[in-house]
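User: These chains co-purify. Model them together.
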Amino acid sequence: GQNIDQPTEMTATEGAIVQINCTYQTSGFNGLFWYQQHAGEAPTFLSYNVLDGLEEKGRFSSFLSRSKGYSYLLLKELQMKDSASYLCAVGPGGYQKVTFGTGTKLQVIP
Amino acid sequence: SQTIHQWPATLVQPVGSPLSLECTVEGTSNPNLYWYRQAAGRGLQLLFYSVGIGQISSEVPQNLSASRPQDRQFILSSKKLLLSDSGFYLCAWSVEGRGNTGELFFGEGSRLTVL
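Assistant: Joint model of the two components:
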């Protein structure tokens, strides 16, 4: 089965850097995803890691350590519009199904 | 380009009434299709997924059912709604076949309130 843990809520200041952690335990692994979900809207894809290391995409970076079952999402130069929930999700050994964590609600304050 | 649409966007239904949510994908062939539910304050729960017409896999026991009558059409149904069926329902698709990342593309969502 899949077990994914991430903090429920975080608060950070506009212009700062925030790191959202995710740990997972899975029976198979085919990649780790991060999605952003604004309140009342559908999730949108942010990043995908299948190999260990850091993937950078603009202000957002995602890190994966498969041996530790650990990932983080790093958001730099925070903007008010970054206030949203950030969902960690893991694909199992097959490719059809992705299991989501409960999400981390990030509040960016002035 | 590929698009996904689901409807209705919002509905309020009495307990015991039927439900039908519809989702269609355009611009791609033979997609993997999914129905997720997000209850208030909870994560996304996978309800059903489909890898082809008429092929439905159920992830959790419930009073909901899904059907895929056409390649790019996915329907979520219930004969009798329960209070616990309230939530935000999301249809999604991903590219079929090995080698794809499994990235999900979500529809706009359908917010269901059962009273």
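The CA atoms of residues 8 and 110 of chain B lie 6 Å apart.
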